[in-house]
TrEMBL record:
This is Uncharacterized protein. The lineage of its organism: Bacteria, Bacillati, Actinomycetota, Coriobacteriia, Coriobacteriales.
Length: 117
C-alpha cells in the first residue's frame, strides 16, 4: 500500500469521526475504538492479527515510502563534478552540450521516481 492510499484512508477515518462524534477527543474515546479506526486506515482490518505482525506490516509500509524517497546523492555529486570539469574554459560548446545530455540522463536515473511520491 503506497503513501497516497494511506493518506486517503486516514482522511476517510477523519471524516467518519467528524460525522460520528465530532466533539470527542482522544481522551474521551475508548482504546478499542481508536485502535480499530487507526488500523483500518492502514488497511489492517484483521483484528485477530498478532500485534507484532501489525507492527511489522506498518514498518514495511513506511520503509517502502522511505526507500522510494531515497536519492543517490553520490551519483548526483559525481555528475556535478563532471559537469564542473567539462564546463571549464577549455571545453567547446558542442562538448558541453553532449556531456550535459548524458549527465542529465544520469541525474534523472539517480532521482528515480522520487518526484512521483
Amino acid at each position: 500500500m503506497n503513501a497516497e492510499v494511506i493518506a486517503e484512508r486516514l482522511r476517510g477515518q477523519a471524516e467518519t469521526w467528524r460525522g460520528y462524534l465530532p466533539d470527542d477527543t482522544l481522551w474521551d474515546m475508548s482504546d478499542h475504538q481508536f485502535t480499530e479506526s487507526a488500523l483500518m486506515a492502514f488497511g489492517l482490518d484483521d483484528l485477530d492479527m498478532p500485534v507484532y505482525e501489525a507492527f511489522e506490516k506498518l514498518a514495511d509500509m513506511f520503509a517502502a515510502v522511505a526507500k522510494a524517497a531515497k536519492v543517490d546523492t553520490d551519483v548526483l555529486r559525481e555528475v556535478a563534478d563532471q559537469l564542473d570539469y567539462d564546463c571549464s574554459e577549455k571545453a567547446t560548446l558542442n562538448s558541453i552540450n553532449l556531456v550535459g545530455k548524458a549527465q542529465a540522463k544520469r541525474i534523472r536515473e539517480a532521482i528515480g521516481d522520487a518526484d512521483y511520491r
